[in-house]
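Below is a filled-in request sheet from our internal design queue. Each sheet records the structural input a requester submitted and the sequence that came back. We keep these sheets so that new team members can see what a complete request looks like end to end.

REQUESTER: design group, bay 2
PRIORITY: normal
MODE: inverse folding
CHAIN LENGTH: 375
BACKBONE (tokenized):
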């Protein structure tokens, strides 16, 4: 595959122009000669320039989907051509990880990291993956791609372990895990053949902004995400004894409920009653069908149903089960969904988005997202 710098240059695109323009304004944020680019800005510029799907909201292993290529986007200062950067957080699994030491800890970290990569590949139909790096140096940006593979469990070697962290290598990359932050880092090295984009930082960016907006009119931005208007977040769990819990006979395990005979794929996503009370117009009325698009672009027929419209289901119900239980969670028929399984994969909620034509989309959200949304 050609580098993204080459693709942009050959297509006379705007990627390098936008990176350069943002970098020139670094004086707004820093007095350093090293350009400043916020990582969210870098993600948005990349997705806009290459018409890639922005995956950053779901906080999965990839930041963008470029023609079924999962792209991890990193921007960091690299004066010495080396930098350790965060590649995964395991806050929900920190107590589990504390049970392990040395090689067993490295293997468990690799297992968790690899499962999250596989999750993102399943979610977005990713065929292969790559890191795209913007390494910021004095008066220039170094752009390059590097491999984005799973950690090789068979070749892990411990290099160092202290009270604060563990350092290991898998024969390809060096990783470190910080105990207190529950964060996995990877060492990135800038190659000599990286694409170099010179940057002249403007001495007085404030004057430029004053001139730019002087007596000019611009189209005003609108809030793209408004709670209860075009999105809500739903939990995939309930609460039992003040703890998150996936009930064995409802929700994702509705197929396991008693009473009438049930299909092995019968499930629903819980809609807490507070969602309906706070945002009564977000969902259609009970049993009114609507389109629901999953991250793979498939469109399901869906509806809210049951008492108090507490359930989001699809018709046929197997569609939701095949996507969420089989494809995303990789559960076999008859295997219970558990909160432990969700935490291992790093999510426990879903976001439902609605556009102006009342078309709905669903995606996963990292653990804790529903609590943040509702509070």
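RETURNED SEQUENCE:
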């Amino acid at each position: 595959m050609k580098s993204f710098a080459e693709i942009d240059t050959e297509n006379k695109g705007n990627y390098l122009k936008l990176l350069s323009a943002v970098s020139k304004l670094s004086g707004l944020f820093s007095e350093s000669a090293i350009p400043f680019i916020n990582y969210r800005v870098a993600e948005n510029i990349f997705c806009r320039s290459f018409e890639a799907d922005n995956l950053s909201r779901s906080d999965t292993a990839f930041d963008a989907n470029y023609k079924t290529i999962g792209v991890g986007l990193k921007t960091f200062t690299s004066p010495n051509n080396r930098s350790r950067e965060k590649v995964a957080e395991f806050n929900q699994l920190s107590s589990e990880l504390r049970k392990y030491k040395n090689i067993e800890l490295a293997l468990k970290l690799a297992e968790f990291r690899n499962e999250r990569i596989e999750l993102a590949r399943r979610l977005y139909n990713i065929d292969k993956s790559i890191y795209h790096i913007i390494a910021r140096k004095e008066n220039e940006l170094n752009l390059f791609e590097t491999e984005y593979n799973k950690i090789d469990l068979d070749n892990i070697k411990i290099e160092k372990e202290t009270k604060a962290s563990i350092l290991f290598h898998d024969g390809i990359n060096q990783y470190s895990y910080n105990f207190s932050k529950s964060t996995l880092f990877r060492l990135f090295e800038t190659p000599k053949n990286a694409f170099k984009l010179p940057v002249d930082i403007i001495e007085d960016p404030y004057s430029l902004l004053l001139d730019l907006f002087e007596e000019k009119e611009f189209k005003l931005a609108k809030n793209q995400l408004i709670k209860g208007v075009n999105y809500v977040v739903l939990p995939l769990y309930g609460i039992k004894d003040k703890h998150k819990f996936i009930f064995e006979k409802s929700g994702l395990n509705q197929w396991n409920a008693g009473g009438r005979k049930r299909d092995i794929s019968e499930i629903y996503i819980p809609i807490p009653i507070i969602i309906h009370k706070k945002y009564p117009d977000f969902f259609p009325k009970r049993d009114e069908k609507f389109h629901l698009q999953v991250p793979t672009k498939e469109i399901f027929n869906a509806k809210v149903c049951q008492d108090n419209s507490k359930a989001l289901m699809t018709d046929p119900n197997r569609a939701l089960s095949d996507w969420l239980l089989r494809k995303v969670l990789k559960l076999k028929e008859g295997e219970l969904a558990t909160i432990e399984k969700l935490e291992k994969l790093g999510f426990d909620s879903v976001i439902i988005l609605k556009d102006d034509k009342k078309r709905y989309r669903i995606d996963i959200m990292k653990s804790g997202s529903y609590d943040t949304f509702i509070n």
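SHEET NOTES:
- The first strand starts at residue 53 and ends at 54.
- The mean pLDDT is 95.
FILED BY: M.R.
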